[in-house]
Amino acid sequence: MLEVLHLTVRYGTKPVLRDVSFRLADGEILAVIGPNGAGKSTLVRALSGILPPECGSIRYDGRDLCALSVQERARLIAVVPQARSLPAGFTAWQVVSLGRTPYLNWLGQLSPADEELIWEAMRRTDTQHLAHRLVGELSGGELQRLLLARAMVQATPVMLLDEPTTHLDLQYQIGLLNQMVEVVRQPISGNGNGKTHQPAALVVLHDLNLVARYADRVLLLVDGCVRAYGTSAEVLRPQLLSEAFGIPLEVMRSPNGKYPLVVPLMA
Questions:
Q1: Which residues pair with 63 in a beta bridge?
Q2: What pLDDT, in 10s, does the model give residues 116-128?
């Protein structure tokens, strides 16, 4: 279990996250929502070790992540960023293979087992046919699938996805999130300890209806603070969302009755 307790992060003198606490269990998908500037991406950066917390703790299975080396942390947490800064001269296969970096020997060589994991991740994300294509030739949807494959071969118990559906059309949004669910629901190995584990995912999303469809739990951030944390039914409520986003919203059941459906109220 990933446990975040009383996390506070500052940019200079400005607090961006304040007293944030939540838990993420193995096999769980937690969606982080909130208006622009709420601290969602800052939370991902803090969890991944890019930003040091001012106070509070981030632990996985009782281990203090802030006290770990970069390599040790990379064996516990993988990040799927927005695909905007990948080196154009890399091939797709090279991008995915970077996920095995925390496990390479001192010569930096991939083992046959590493290569098998890479090909399996590319198969599961439908990117095998892109293996020898250059990154600069690929579409946004193809790049996002590569980044998901890279995180898969990193074989970590926790995966962080920072707005992975941004700039993707609906087909690619659904496809990427379906693949995320498949990763979380299927035990994986390859993290160097000989064990299998059930991954967990924290995903930052803007589309509240995708949140309702895919998340087991929802964390609502407003002005760097936790406004609500719980199941979709507990967090996706009209008054709470309307206050958080500053527009009147209604929540109803989807046509199939399975999920909440968030719609803006027309004037």
A1: 60
A2: 999 999 998 889 9
117 φ, ψ (degrees, to nearest 5): -65, -40
Total Cβ atoms within 10 A of residue 105: 8
Contact 245, 260 (CB under 8 A): no
Q: Give 83's pLDDT tier (boundaries 50, 70, 90).
A: low
CA distance 40 to 61: 23
User: Rounded to whole angstroms, how far apart are CA atoms 162 and 14?
Assistant: 22
Tokens of 126: 């439908």
Q: Give the tens place of pLDDT for each residue, 252-266.
A: 987 877 888 899 987
What does the alpha-carbon distance between residue 1 and residue 252 come to, in Å, rounded to a whole number?
32
Alpha carbon distance 84, 172 (integer Å): 16
Q: How far apart are CA 191 and CA 18, in angstroms?
A: 33
